[in-house]
Design a protein that fits this description.
heterodimer, A: about 475 residues, globular, B: about 90 residues, transmembrane (chain A), Na/solute_symporter_CS (chain A), pantothenate transmembrane transporter activity (chain A)
Chain lengths: ~475, ~90
């Protein structure tokens, strides 16, 4: 084990623990437990809000998988990754004020609370709770596996021990600190990501002898690496552009993003978050993927994409600095996992338990339930991640795009189109998920339909069915002022 | 039906700004990437060592978006209260 690499990570974990402890103090002094535990008391300022959005969104794939693919594909993949800049402003401008106002008016704590008040339909609530719990649970497990693997590869501990360390670190602060702990640790983790990527980018450029040199090496190896079409010329215009939907505008439909749009203190924090979020997302994505491409001439011949970033960090930086930089992907994974954990837990406690099982539960019971469910969920995810079942890996394939296809129109049209009703919402969710799964299999065996990413058609089809069903069945205008 | 909450008018306007910005952003990103990038690689010029299509599409595009959102937040987006009127 390389102590110089491991020490910065231990310090990083200690800081995270301390924040969790600090946030738990706030919880015991707050008067509304649910709002505090699941939304941080709707008090987030601009900086923390921006960072928690960036950090939640930036997961293992932005720090390990994405740069790894850029290493193989070249500049075309950075072009694709930069479509994510749009999420920084789009989510907050679209959900922005109307969602914040309505969420407060309805006293909503979760996305599903909002859907419940807007559509007044138990089917909508159960459908959305079920899809959230299933999809988020599976993507959470996948991220835990990633976290465990990362610790394993950095420290040389075996996978089970590594996973255990990862699980304990996340579980402790999420369980005791709730949303505030998640948001504050996200802010620290976001900061680590920004600094880590910048240091590593500079390191790689120096090691490669300057940008001119590196790009020249790429052209000499294969000129297509500097074109937008990928190393083999197969990265098509339509495919890359369809990522505007998957990782750009479609992100509005992700519950973990929507819940953050109810947590800010006032419109000034929202405006500030918009600016910081856009800048930080773009900065991190640009840097990370440039690192991936630039790593190619510096350290040729890496076979496994996920290893590009750890290997290049250890190659071009002194060990202690590599440790700090490699805390960044770790931070990215943790900050994604922590919010998913809390989201699933809130869905079970608030959307299922309080809604349908015990509406008159006392504050004390709710408190015990929330801590308990969060902890139990964590333990279950840990056990699953030890030996991930095939079903879970299978479900994870649909998690991101499936959730977008299910939620985007019920949320967006629910906010802005007064004729949207529960029939539209149900039809849209069912269509979104069903066509996503169907097209996924079609694309797997026949290549991409129309050359675009799987998510594109389901988003269009679920829009069509939302509008059709809303207008055909019990057409009625919704009054937002009620 | 009661009169519409005046805050919603602001919210609707800002959502439309979001859509418009995303459309313009897409055109910029797409135009430079595939407009310049579709030439043969030998004809590329390099700016700060980066291929020109990439520099304009992703680097300049990103910087312009940052400037735009800063200006939006400063001059265009309006402050509104999120609380209900009677609670003020």
């Amino acid at each position: 084990m390389n102590m110089a690499v491991v020490l910065p990570m231990i310090i990083f974990l200690l800081i995270i623990f301390f924040i969790g402890y600090y946030a738990s103090k706030k919880i015991s002094s707050s008067n509304s437990f649910l709002q505090e535990y699941f939304l941080g008391g709707r008090e987030l300022g601009g900086f923390v809000l921006a960072m928690t959005m960036v950090a939640t969104y930036g997961s293992a794939s932005s720090f390990l998988g994405g740069p790894g693919t850029a290493y193989t594909m070249g500049f075309g993949w950075i072009l694709l990754a930069m479509t994510q800049v749009v999420t920084g402003y789009f989510v907050l401008l679209i959900l922005g004020k109307k969602f914040a106002i309505l969420a407060r008016r309805y006293n909503a704590v979760t996305l599903i609370d909002f859907l419940k008040m807007r559509y007044k339909s138990p089917i909508v609530v159960l459908l959305s709770a079920a899809s959230m719990i299933i999809f988020l649970f599976s993507s959470m497990t996948a991220q835990w596996v990633g976290g465990g693997r990362l610790i394993e590869s950095l420290t040389g501990l075996n996978y089970h021990t590594a996973l255990f360390i990862f699980a304990i670190s996340v579980l402790v602060y999420v369980t005791i600190g709730g949303f505030r702990a998640v948001a504050l640790t996200d802010a620290v983790q976001g900061g680590v990501m920004v600094i880590g990527t910048l240091v590593l980018l500079i390191g790689v450029i120096i090691a490669g002898g300057g940008i001119d040199n590196i790009v020249q090496d790429l052209v000499n190896e294969n000129p297509r690496l500097v074109s937008p079409y990928g190393f083999d010329g197969n990265l098509s215009m339509a495919y890359v552009s369809s990522f505007w939907i998957l990782v750009g505008v479609g992100v509005v439909g992700l519950p973990q993003m929507a819940v953050r749009a109810m947590s800010y203190k006032n419109s000034r924090s929202m405006h500030r978050a918009l600016v910081i979020g856009t800048i930080v997302t773009g900065f991190i994505m640009l840097n990370m993927h440039l690192i991936g491409v630039f790593a190619r001439p510096v350290l040729p011949g890496i076979e496994i994409g996920d290893k590009v970033i750890p290997l290049i960090a250890l190659e071009v930086l002194p060990a202690w600095l590599a440790g700090i930089v490699l805390a960044a992907p770790m931070a990215a994974i943790m900050s994604t996992v922590d919010s998913l954990l809390l989201l699933v837990s809130s869905s079970i406690v608030k959307d299922v338990y309080i809604n349908y099982i015990k509406p008159d539960a006392s504050e004390k019971t709710i408190k015990r339930m929330s801590f308990g469910i969060t902890a139990i969920l964590g333990v279950i995810v840990f056990l699953l991640a030890l030996n991930p079942p095939d079903l879970l890996i299978f479900l994870n394939l649909f998690a991101f795009g499936g959730l977008e296809a299910a939620f985007i129109w019920p949320v967006v049209l629910g906010l802005y189109w007064s004729y949207g009703n529960k029939y539209g919402a149900i039809a849209s969710m069912v269509t979104g998920i069903a066509t996503y799964v169907a097209i996924h299999f079609y694309n797997q065996s026949n290549g991409n339909l129309f050359g675009v990413h799987t998510v594109t058609l389901p988003i269009v089809l679920s829009l069509v069915s939302f509008v059709l069903f809303s207008l055909l069945i019990k057409r009625e205008q919704y009054d937002f002022e009620k | 039906m009661k009169k519409q909450d005046p805050r919603f008018k602001i919210a609707h306007r800002e959502a439309l700004i979001g859509v418009a910005l995303a459309v313009v952003h897409f055109i910029w990103w797409f135009g430079f990437a595939y407009g310049l990038g579709s030439r043969p690689v030998e004809e590329y010029t390099y700016i700060f060592g980066l291929p020109d299509w990439f520099f304009y599409s992703c680097v300049v595009g990103f910087i312009l978006i940052c400037i735009t959102v800063i200006l939006l937040a400063k001059f265009v987006l309006k402050d509104v209260s999120f609380e209900e009127e009677d609670m003020k």
